[in-house]
Amino acid sequence: MTEAAKKIFEEVSLLDADERIELIETLNGEFGPRDADVEQEWADEIKRRVDDLRSGKTKTIPWEVVRAELGLPPRDS
Hints:
This protein is an all-alpha fold. It folds into two domains: 1-34; 35-77, no CATH class. The protein contains four helices and no strands. The radius of gyration is 18 Å and the shape is extended. 0% of the residues are buried.
């Protein structure tokens, strides 16, 4: 990552959640028009996934277990 990109990431990390959302929405506009149907479908999917996690229907897998299953070396402490 370039120094310029690192600086941008540092600055963005100081923004509150609403400011980050506004920034993302602004950047999304740079890459073409937003499709309201797609946006709603993603929002519905995210809600479903969060609900599944909260209800216990879906379980998470610790990253170290995933790394081992993929045959990746353990992360250095």
